[in-house]
């Protein structure tokens, strides 16, 4: 797709210059000239009163798009262990592959982690593309981008999914830029348009106040990142196998601009909200940081963990690692207790798919009650001790 000025029609009115959001148009000898900053957005086409700007389609891209096949999942591994989000993406990828009518593949990078291919087959991958090199042992942007970019240009997948982990959020945009395609970050829903077979990527926009569905009609691959915990994990089929395709990757001396000197793991308590089956979450209604001690008592009784709203994190009552919501972690436990949490849309975005939501709030009109399965109107400092007391009465198993 190219945007061109038809010089004979241009009257030099400069309207297009003002209309271009990317300052890509300049005037030369009273004629508009489109420069390299043009993104092809087409605003100037509509702005020109003389029909002097046109968007042309040379047909090449349509032909190129048809060369792309298959859904790929980036099989992120750390220290030889697959990240849970890779298994969730295989679950979602399988649905997409079935809707498109194509194969589901995983792309794995590392050093000596070929054994993970078996696991990926069992979780639904038909093919695993595996890049093995000492340079891929630790993640670096340059090494992983080079290995996967080369694989994409060779094998041409039509869809590439990555987890919105620290690594996926770094790698995804680099790959998208190199492939000259789009990337939709933090998708909460992925569907295939039955007519175009293109992917419809839905994500929260404008602070979570509306959901935007984004398409990538003219470029391939179509790329999305999805946060951990959002999609259902693929079911493991023991003994299932597939085809292992080894990628040849060679790194020149200057290919990798960074070196990992040391890996220092956070000494902080590791919080695994995505794996928890019971979460007892607290918000500003706790009134003080010590309120989390009471929540912990209930969480311990139920074999769960505590979590929080962002307001409690912002107040400095608890670490950000515990935050549930749009800018925190997305969780899907069997039971989610929302204690003194109003239920703002940004909080709900991270917990509304929980199995059973129990809300405890003094305000009967709090929005959390709109999504709660069980609503308790009352002071959490009275309700929670009462629940603990009842649990204590239950016979030990
Ligand atoms: P409040 O809204 O102040 O609610 C406190 C509740 O406690 C009230 O409903 C009150 O009735 C109740 N209460 C008071 N005393 C008691 C008591 N003794 N017993 C029982 N109930 C009591 N928020 C998140 O949580 N996660 C996010 O990821 C997130 N991301 C955001 C991203 C953006 C771009 C923006 C703009 C906001 C985001 N927020 C997020 C903030 C969100 O909008 C809310 O401000 C926040 O969730 C409110 O936290 P809260 O419910 O703890 O506090
Ligand atoms: Fe020329 Fe049209 Fe731009 Fe005016 S708006 S300068 S006529 S291209
Ligand atoms: Fe500017 Fe968009 Fe026109 Fe390109 S297509 S010149 S970016 S307004």
Give a structural overview.
The protein has 397 residues and is an alpha/beta fold. It has three domains: 55 residues, 2-Layer Sandwich (Alpha-Beta Plaits); 183 residues, Rossmann fold (3-Layer(aba) Sandwich), CATH 3.40.50.620; 121 residues, TPP-binding domain (Rossmann fold, 3-Layer(aba) Sandwich). It contains twelve helices and 21 strands. The chain has a seven-stranded parallel sheet, with helices on both faces. The protein has a five-stranded parallel sheet with strand order 18-17-19-20-21. The longest helix has 17 residues. The chain is globular and about 85 Å long. The site of one iron/sulfur cluster has 14 residues, from α1. The site of one iron/sulfur cluster (SF4) has 14 residues, from α1.
- SS class: alpha/beta
Q: Categorize the overall geometry.
A: globular
Number of helices: 12
Q: Main sheet?
A: 7 strands, parallel
Please indicate the percent range of residues in DSSP E strands (runs of 2 or more): 15-25%
CATH architecture of the largest domain: 3-Layer(aba) Sandwich
> What is the typical, i.e. mean, pLDDT?
92
Question: Would you identify the CATH H-level superfamily of the largest domain?
Answer: HUPs
Within the CATH hierarchy, at the fold level, what is the topology of the largest domain? Rossmann fold
Number of β-strand runs = 21
Radius of gyration: 25 Å
Proportion in helices:
25-40%
**Ligands (ions, cofactors included):** flavin-adenine dinucleotide, iron/sulfur cluster
Number of domain units: 3
């Amino acid at each position: 797709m190219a945007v061109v000025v038809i010089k004979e029609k241009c009257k030099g009115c400069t309207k297009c210059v003002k209309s271009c959001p990317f300052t890509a148009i300049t005037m030369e000898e009273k004629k508009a000239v489109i420069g390299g900053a043009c993104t092809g957005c087409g605003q100037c086409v509509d702005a020109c009163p003389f029909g002097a700007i046109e968007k042309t389609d040379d047909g090449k891209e349509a032909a190129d798009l048809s060369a792309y096949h298959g859904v790929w999942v980036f099989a992120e591994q750390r220290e030889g262990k697959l990240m849970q989000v890779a298994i969730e993406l295989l679950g979602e990828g399988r649905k997409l592959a079935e809707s498109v009518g194509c194969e589901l593949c995983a792309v794995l990078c590392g050093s000596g982690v070929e054994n993970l291919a078996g696991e990926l087959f069992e979780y639904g991958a038909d093919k695993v593309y595996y890049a093995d090199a000492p340079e891929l042992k630790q993640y670096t942007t340059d090494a992983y981008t080079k290995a996967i970019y080369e694989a994409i240009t060779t094998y041409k997948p039509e869809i590439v999914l990555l987890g919105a982990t620290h690594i996926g959020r770094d790698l995804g945009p680099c790959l998208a830029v190199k492939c000259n395609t789009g990337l939709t970050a933090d998708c909460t829903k992925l569907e295939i348009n039955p007519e175009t077979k293109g992917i419809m990527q839905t994500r929260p926009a404008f602070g979570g106040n509306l959901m935007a569905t984004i398409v990538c009609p003219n470029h391939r691959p179509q790329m999305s990142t999805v946060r951990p915990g959002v999609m259902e994990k693929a079911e493991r089929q023991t003994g299932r196998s597939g085809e292992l395709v080894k990628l040849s990757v060679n790194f020149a001396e200057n290919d990798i601009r960074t070196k990992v000197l040391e890996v220092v793991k956070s000494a902080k308590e590791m919080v695994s909200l995505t794996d928890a089956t019971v979460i007892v979450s607290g918000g500003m209604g706790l009134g003080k940081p010590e309120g989390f001690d009471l929540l912990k008592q209930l969480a311990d009784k139920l074999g769960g963990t505590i979590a929080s709203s962002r307001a409690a994190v912002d107040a400095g009552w608890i670490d950000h690692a515990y935050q549930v919501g749009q800018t925190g972690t997305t969780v899907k436990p069997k039971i989610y207790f929302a204690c003194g949490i109003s239920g703002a849309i940004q909080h709900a975005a991270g917990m509304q798919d929980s199995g059973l939501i129990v809300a405890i709030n003094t305000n009967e009109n709090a929005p959390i009650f709109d999504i709660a399965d069980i609503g308790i109107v009352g002071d959490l400092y009275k309700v929670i001790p009462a629940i603990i007391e009842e649990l204590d009465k239950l016979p030990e198993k």
